[in-house]
Amino acid sequence: MTERTGCNIDHFFPGISGDYVALFSENSGVWTVLDRLKGYIRDVIRPNLFPEVRPGVPVSTHLVLLPQGWLTDGFEIVCDEATKGKFQVRIDGEAVPQASLICAGTIFTDNQLQIGKGVIIEPGAMIKGPGIIGDYTEVRQGAYIRGDCLIGKRCVIGHTTEVKHSVFLDGAKAGHFAYIGDSVLGRDVNLGAGTKLANLCFAPGNVSIKIGGKSIDTGRRKFGAILGDKVQTGCNSVTNPGVLVGLNSLITPGSIVMPGSYTPRSVIR
Q1: 183-193 per-position pLDDT tens digit
Q2: CB of 157 closer than 8 Å to CB of 115
Q3: For residue range 191-233, what is the model confidence (pLDDT) as tens digits?
Q4: Does residue 107 contact residue 56 with C-beta atoms inside 8 Å?
């Protein structure tokens, strides 16, 4: 059962604070975070990409970022049963969890990227700045990050997943074959394989949302979805442009979610 609800931020991201609080406003629709995103990234970003990375040219060798700077050698990369199939950086035989790894074959279009500690970027990912990738986040093989993306801590941008002008709050995961356009994923959101957050209507004009029987113009031509904390989507689910889903909700596999606002703890079929 689903119900329509308002745009109270506590329906989506209760207690939001810390690194992200400046993005949100209690006095406007929750989607206005997308209007502030571009300026916010430019205000806070501290680019730290390896200076010799060439735009559009695949990185030729593994690169490791430590607090004291970049390494091009003097480390070992391990990926086996002991690491549960994940890349691990070792120095002198010891695992270094805070080391960030950019695998050979990654492509960057510019140097406007801030990389946190413990980040893993697998071969074949393509990343356009400006953007921020938070601590211990995984960017997996074939991922495409298209600019103006704020990715929090311990997130996953999965295989052949595309992200454009979006926010992943801490712990949000889109592990497999997803599209996330002009959207916000709350803390610990998990997208099932093949989830698509569509961001552009067929009809001309801005995306509107019906709330309480009233149609509200978001002022945005492109607007995907706002998924509150701990929302789960089933495989191959699709949200239409202009979907607001309250925290702790479930979107069942194969569902097509119509525009509108859904209360916390909804089950959307």
Answers
A1: 999 999 999 99
A2: no
A3: 999 999 999 999 999 999 988 888 999 999 999 999 999 999 9
A4: yes
Q: Which residue among the candidates 11, 62, 165, 176 is catalytic per the annotation?
A: 176
The three-state secondary structure class of 159 is strand
Q: What is the CA radius of gyration of the chain?
A: 19
The 10 Å Cβ neighbour count of residue 46 is 7
Task: Let me know if 176 is a catalytic residue.
Answer: yes
Specify the residue for token string 């609800």.
5
Count of C-beta atoms within a 10 Å radius of residue 204: 6
Note the pTM of the prediction, 2 decimals.
Answer: 0.96
Give tens-digit pLDDT for 103-140.
999 999 999 999 999 999 999 999 999 999 999 999 99
Contact 217, 208 (CB under 8 A): yes
Pick from 120, 58, 108: nearest CA to 84: 120
37 membership: H or E segment, kind and range: helix 33-44
CB 62 within 8 A of CB 76: no
Three-state secondary structure of 205-244: CCCEEEECCEEEECCCCECCEEECCCCEECCCCEECCCEE
In angstroms, rounded to a whole number, what is the distance separating the alpha carbons of residues 259 and 240? 6
- Which element (helix H / strand E) includes 133? strand 131-133
Percent of the chain surpassing pLDDT 70: 98
Amino acid at 191: L
pLDDT of the residue at 5: 53
